[in-house]
Amino acid sequence: MTDSLTVRDNRTGQEYDVPITDGTIKAADLGAIKEGDDQPGLAVYDPGFVNTASCRSAVTFIDGEEGILEYRGYPIEQLAEKSNFLEVAYLLIHGSLPTKAEYESWVHEITYHTFVHENVKSFMEGFRYDAHPMGMLMASVGALSTFYPDARHIDDDEIRRLQIVRMIAKMPTLGAWAFRHAQGKPYIYPDNELGYTANFLSMLFKMSEQRFEADERLVRALDVLFILHADHEQNCSTNAVRGVGSSQVDPYSAVAAGVAALYGPLHGGANEAVLRMLRRIETVENVPGFLEGVKNREERLMGFGHRVYKNYDPRARIIEQHMDEVFEATEYNPLVEIARELAKRALDDEYFTSRKLYPNVDYYSGIIYEALQIPTEMFTVIFAIPRTSGWVAQWMELNDDPEQKIARPRQIYTGERDRDFIPIEEREGPEKIVGPPARRPKRQRRGA
Ligand code: ACO
Is 108 among the residues known to form the active site? Predict the structure, then answer.
C-alpha cells in the first residue's frame, strides 16, 4: 500500500499522485492540478477550516469520538485532580512538568509580575462607567505592548520568556480591574502573599478588610476551571492568535486578537445561555415538557453538543464532580437540580444519544461562576485568563515552526472584472435615497 492519493482530473483526464502524510495531503500539492498551463491550480474551499489542518502541534490532543483531552500527553482528569493551574501553565508552555525547583521559581516569577504600570490603571479608569470587562481586557492586554516595546524581539528567548511570564501574571489583574470598573469600586492591587487563583478572587471582591481570604473549596474549584480552560487546540481564538502572530507581531498584540475572538457569542457565550435556559425552565417538574420542545426542534438544549466531542466532554464531567463541594461553601442554587434532572433525562433519551449529544464544558461552568458571585459579563474574562497560557504556548510553537508562514488564505473571487472608471458626473442610475442600508438576509451560522 502506498501512502498517496491518486486524483483523476475529469476536465483533462490527467491523473496525479498526491502524497499522504500524517493523514493529510498538502493543499499546495493540489496546486499542480491545472486545466491548462496558463490556468490557476486547484485550491481547497474550506470556510471555517472545518477539515483543514493549519499547523503541526504538540500542545493539546483531543479525540472527540472517545471524549479524550490531553495537555502535552497528560489526561485532563489527572491534571485536574493532582495539579494546579500554574503548574499546568508551565506544562503547556515548556512541554514537560516542572521539577520542584523549576516550579518554585516559576510561581515566584509569576507572583512578582502581577502588578501593572500605574499608567495602565489610569487608562483603564478612562473607560466608560459601564464598559464591558471583555472589551477592557482586550484593549489593555494589547496596550501592554506599548509598555514593553522589547516584546517585538520575538526571536530572543529571554525577552520572549519575560513577556510570557508578564502576560500570565498580569491577566488576572487586568481582568479583575475591568470587573471593578463597571461596579464603580476601587481597583484592588495584587496581594503577592496569595496564590494565583486566590489573588484573583481577592482583586475581584476585596473591600475594606486587611486581607480577602476566599473559601479554600472555592479557590480550588476556580483553579480546576482554570485548568480545564487552559487550552483546547485549534479553536477560533487560538487560530486568531496564530493568524495574527504569523505576521511576527509582539505576543501582547497576538493575545489581544485571541481575546477579541473569545468575546464573540459563538465562542465564549454558551454558559450564559445555559443559565438563561435553566431560569426559564424554572422547576424540575417542567423539565420533561422543555425536553419535548427541544425534540420538536422549537429550541436547543444549551450546553449540550459539541463540534469536536461526540461523547461526554471530559471537562463537563470534571466540573460536575466539583459542584457539591462548591455548593457546600455557597448559597443553595435551585438551578443545580434542574440542570442535573435535565442532563439525566437527556442522557437517557434516544433523541440525544443517537445524535451523540452530551454535556459540554459550558453546561455546568456558568452555575459554578454564579455560585462564586461572578456576573455573566465576566464569564468570558474568566475563560480568557487561563486560556492565555494556551495561547502563548501555541504562539511559541508557531514561532519555532519552520513550516509556518504568514497566514494568507486564498479566495474565490465572485466580483466584477475589467470595469472602466466613470467620472461621477457621468454616472447614471436610480436616484439614491440617503438613509440606512437595506437589511441583508441573516447569515446561517454555526458555532463550535
Ligand atoms: N440541542 C438539541 N439538538 C441539537 C443540539 C442541542 N444542543 N446540538 C445539536 N443538535 C442536533 C441538531 O439539531 C442536529 O440534528 P439533525 O441531524 O436531526 O438535524 C444534530 O444534533 C447535529 O447538530 P449540528 O448543529 O450539525 O452539530 P454541530 O456540530 O454543527 O453543532 C454545536 C455543535 C453548535 C455546539 C451544537 O451542538 C449546539 O448548538 N449546542 C448548543 C450550544 C452550546 O452548548 N455551545 C457550546 C459549545 S462548547 C464551546 O464552544 C466552548
Answer: no
Atom nearest to 363 CA in ligand 1? 44
Q: How confident is the model at residue 441 (pLDDT cuts 50, 70, 90)?
A: low
Nearest residue (CA) to ligand 1, atom 21:
355
Catalytic one of 231, 306, 313, 322 = 306
Of 63, 117, 267, 349, which is the active-site residue?
267
Per the CB < 8 A criterion, the answer to whether 76 and 261 are in contact is no
Give 30-69 pLDDT, tens digit per residue. 999 999 999 999 999 999 999 999 999 999 999 999 999 9
pLDDT in tens, 376-417: 999 999 999 999 999 999 999 999 999 999 999 999 999 999
| Band of residue 333 on the pLDDT scale cut at 50, 70, 90 | confident
Quick check: is 267 catalytic?
yes
Asked if 153 is an active-site residue, the reply is no
The CA 77 to ligand 1 mean position distance, Å, reads 25
Structure confidence at residue 265 (pLDDT): 81
Ligand 1 centroid to Cα of residue 305, in Å, is 5
Ligand 1 contacts (CB < 6 A) are 270, 294, 300-307, 355, 357, 360-362, 446-448
Q: Which residues of 181-194 are buried (b: 16+ CB within 10 A; e: fewer)?
A: bbeeeebbebbeeb
Q: Give per-residue pLDDT as tens, 271-300.
A: 888 999 999 999 999 999 999 999 999 999
Pocket test for ligand 1, best of 281, 298, 306, 311 (most atoms within 8 A of CB): 306
